[in-house]
Amino acid sequence: NWTPFNFVEMTVNELKEQVGEDKVVLGLSGGVDSSVAAVLLNKAIGENLHCIFVNNGLLRKYEFESVLHQYEGMGLNVKGVDASARFLDALKGVDDPEEKRKIIGRVFIEVFDDEAHKIMDAKWLGQGTIYPDVIESISVNGPSATIKSHHNVGGLPDFMKLKIVEPLRMLFKDEVRRVGASLGMNPELLGRHPFPGPGLAIRILGDITPEKVAILQEVDYIFITNLRNWGLYDKVWQAGAMLLPVNSVGVMGDERTYEKCVALRAVESTDGMTADWVNLPYEFLQKTSNEIINKVKGVNRVVYDISSKPPATIEWE
Ligand code: XMP
To answer: What does this protein do (predicted)?
Structure first.
C-alpha cells in the first residue's frame, strides 16, 4: 500500500541508482511541486543537486527573498538569480496576453540556460512534473513544468540536451503535499496557492511598467495577508488581484482623484479547470478594500470578481 514514507524511501533509492554521481540542475519556482522534487533529490544526491531560482520581477511582494531564504534554510544548494530587469525590459510596451507569455517563456529559457551552463558537466534536468501534467502534457504550473522534455537536436539551449529526471511524475497534488510533509517540509510552503508562471504580468491588463508591478504587489500583499489573518487562506484554492487598465473618478479629502481600479479574485477549485468565486465575508471585503485604498497610492477603487469558470477564466488574461 502507498504511504508517503514508503514512497520517499523507494524514490530516494531509485534516484541514487539512476543519477549516481552525476550533477542535476533543477529550476525552483517557489511552488509546491518543484520544491518537493528538490527536497527528494537533495535527500538522494545532496550537493550534486544544483537548484536555480529565477526572479522574473513579476513575483509577489517579498516572494523572491523570503522563498530563497526558506530554500537555503532547507539545506538546498540553490542559486537565486535576479533577472527582473531583463524580463521587464523585454516586456516593455507589450499588451497582448499571449505575447507576454511567449516573451516570459523565452527569457526564462535564456536566463536558465545561462545559469545551467555554469554548472560544469551537469547530466540531468530535474523537474517537478506531476501526474496530471504528464496526462495533459500541456502544463499550467510554473516554470519548471513549462520546460518540457525535447528531442536531443542541435540548436536547443544546452540544458534541454540534458536527460530528464522527474521523481513526482506518478503523483497527484495531494500526494505531493503528503510526501512533502513526510520530508518535514514547512506546511506553509506545502499549502501555498498555485501561482502562474508569468506571474503578475498576466494580472496587469495592458502594458507592464515597474510602477504598475509595484502597485499590484502592494494590493496583492494586503489581500493575501488579510486572507491569512482571517483564517481564510487555506479555505481558498487561489486568490490574487488584477490591475485594470481603467481610471475612475474618486474623492480624497476635498480633492478629486482619477486613479486606478483593482479587481480582487478568490476561487474555489480542485484542479483549476473549473472554479467558483468564493463568498468572502462582507466585513473582510470592506476592511480589505479600505486598507487598499488608504495605503496604496494610485488606487481609488476596488471591485470583487464574482464570475465563475467557465465561462470566465481564473486569470483575467
Ligand atoms: P485560467 O486563467 O486558465 O487558469 O483559468 C487556470 C490555472 O492556471 C494558471 N495559469 C497559468 N499558469 N502559466 C502558468 O504556469 C500560464 O501561462 C498560466 N495561465 C494561467 C492560473 O493561475 C490557474 O491556476
So the answer is: Catalyzes the synthesis of GMP from XMP.
Q: Please, what sign has the CA dihedral across residues 54, 55, 60, 64?
A: positive
> Is 256 exposed, middle or buried, given 0-12, 13-18 or 19+ CB atoms closer than 10 A?
exposed
- Give the mutation target among 314, 316, 317 for probing the ligand 1 site: most ligand atoms within 8 A of CB: 314
User: pTM of the entire structure?
Assistant: 0.91
pLDDT (tens digit, 9 = 90+) per residue, 271-285? 899 999 999 999 999
Q: Which atom of ligand 1 is the closest one to the Cα of 101?
A: 17
- Distance between Cα 24 and ligand 1 center (Å): 27
Q: How many CB atoms lie within 10 A of CB 84?
A: 17
What ipTM does this complex have? 0.99
Distance between CA 97 and CA 316 in Å, rounded? Answer: 9
Nearest to 79 by CA among 93, 95, 68: 68
